[in-house]
Amino acid sequence: MRAEFRARARVAALPHVGLFDIRINYGNVVAEPMCDFYSINVPLGPGIEWRIGSKVEAGGSGGIRVGVPGEEFNLRFHHAAPVLVANIDARAVHDAASEAGFSHDARREISLSCPEGAALFRVLTIQWRDALRAGRVPANDTDLGDIEQRLIEAFVAAAFPDTNPLPSSAEATRIMSAAEAFVRAELSGPMTVDKIACASDTSNRTLHRVFLHAAGVSPMVYVTRERLNAARRRLLAAERGTLTVRQAATECGFAHHGRFSILYREAFGESPSETLRHWH
User: Fold this and answer.
1) What share of the chain is helix, strand, coil (3-state, %, to 5)?
2) Which is higher by pLDDT, 162 or 60?
3) Are 197 and 207 a contacting pair, CB within 8 Å?
4) Which DSSP letter does residue 70 get?
5) What distances in angstroms separate CA 64 from CA 3, 22, 86, 90, 93, one per listed residue?
6) CA 270 vs CA 166, 266, 276: distances in Å
7) Angle of CA points 50, 26, 107, to nearest 5°
8) What domains are defined for the chain?
């Protein structure tokens, strides 16, 4: 059989990530052994049969499949089925895994029932797929780096095993409290996982796991959420004529104001200028 491809949209490739939202009508897709990237495949409907290495199974919307470097990746489409695909540079993944203390032995399938899998699914389907459908391309290097960091962090946390136990409940509470206090205090400035982990007196790996289990998101997604909430509070509290959207974005750590407006609308259902205008 032959495969027919019909791509709805495609975001221009980021430095380390290519992302595609594809619908394939029918047939087989055979990928050559991948030497330099991981392929994350999210089936968004039934009708897909996967063969990763020697394992063959039916695919549906119940999990995320991962093709790893050096391994052939095959798919058979019994009828039209949408698939969200993200290809990530292997070196960037391995650097992030080493930094966070994870192994380099990736899972071939990621369950959506675990916190890490659910977090990765949210990043891919909510943030990325919506951007694809709207045709929005990140505007500058700052945005590109932030977007890539979120996706790579979520993928590493979900795909790479960590045999170390979670910290005790008391220790996890301490880490979260310290991290939250640091984020609130430094909200307007540059923020990295390294800085949050150092302020919380823990490792990057443990910080990731604590955030995923306690908040359901990675540390940097949490930072963005807190910045958006702070910006909304700032806009709502400002007296008429004393604050602009640009000022609120800058005060809350958003370097690119166009990106801030997009994230704000996605979070609150209205633009920041609408908030500023309607509530005063």
Assistant:
1) 45, 20, 30
2) 162
3) yes
4) T
5) 22, 15, 11, 18, 17
6) 38, 8, 10
7) 15
8) 5-159 (2.60.120.10)
Rounded Cα distance, 105 and 85, in Å: 20
Q: Which three-class secondary structure state does DSSP give residue 40? A: strand
Is 142 or 24 the better-scoring residue by pLDDT?
A: 24
Question: Which of 12-26, 63-77, 177-191 shows the lowest per-residue confidence on average (mean pLDDT)?
Answer: 12-26
Task: Indicate whether 233 pLDDT > 80.
Answer: yes
Assign 7 a pLDDT band (cuts: 50, 70, 90): very low
**What type of residue sits at position 183?**
V
Q: 60: how many CB neighbours lie within 10 A of its CB?
A: 13
Place of tokens 């009828």: 79
* 3-class secondary-structure state, position 15: coil
For residue 215, CA distances in Å to 152, 175, 209, 211, 231 come to 18, 12, 10, 5, 20
- For residues 168-189, give the mean pLDDT: 93
- State the chain's mean pLDDT as an integer: 76
Give dist(CA 109, CA 118) in Å, integer. Answer: 13
3-state secondary structure of 84: strand
Question: Which residues neighbour 176 within 8 Å (Cβ) at sequence distance 6 or greater?
Answer: 210, 211, 214, 215
Are 121 and 61 within 8 A, CB to CB? no
Give pLDDT, residue 243. Answer: 86
Residues of the chain above pLDDT 70, percent: 68
Between strands 5-11 and 17-24, the pairing is antiparallel
Sign of CA pseudo-dihedral 54, 60, 65, 70? positive
What is the torsional sign of CA 8, 11, 13, 17?
negative
